[in-house]
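Anyone able to model this chain together with pyrazine-2-carboxylic acid?
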Amino acid sequence: MLDRRQVLAMLGTTALATLAPTALFAAASIKPDDASALLVIDVQNCFLPGGSLAVKEGEQVVPVINRIAKAFSNVVMTQDWHTQGHVSFASVHSGRKPFETIDLPYGKQVLWPDHCVQGTDGAALSKDLAIPHAELIIRKGFHKDVDSYSAFLEADGKTSTGLAGYLKGRKIKRVFVAGLATDFCVAWTALDARKAGFEVYVVEDACRGIDTQGSLAKAWADMAKAGVKRIQSADIAVGA
Ligand code: VGL
Ligand code: ZN
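re: yes, here you go
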């Protein structure tokens, strides 16, 4: 026999399941317009399974990004594009290991395994990305002594990649950010986009994080504080 509590619990589940598609989720309520751009951050082999800085479940962002990209008339992609012996590589700092932090002239720097070296297979965009209408690929992190998580500004906080100028020149007002990794290049890009005056959305399920030393929780907190909107891919209206 079911007791009263079990019956109530079952009713609760049924009621929730019935409500869920309509009342609990505002499905596909965001419609990107011509003043919107999707920024696809660093979906490169080094950050995918088998890569030197593989992000957990990184490959899962690809079909999600391919789907939402159809809703955008403007898509920009980025590539982390380091020199050999880049300052962000643990291998160039004797006695240091990946994921340790050091102080550099421009501030704290997390040290990484060698990754995304210019012209290598690891630096190539995933062959599974299917966004032929992407209009610009912006490379970053190509100065040997400065890192650049952000697609807008290098880690010195002042050297511009030119992306803000490009987007403003194209009359873009809103940017949607997706890709790898949530807590580094996605978050820094989103924060700089806010500073540059854009309305900013991060598409959570179109991103995956590295999460070292609490970086993922901190990134979401920093983004919330800066007015970045956290959305899901299902919130975006795609197609007819
Ligand atoms: C990234 C660490 C080092 C990223 C790039 O794309 O998030 N993370 N370089
Ligand atoms: Zn990098």
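The first helix runs from residue 4 to 24.
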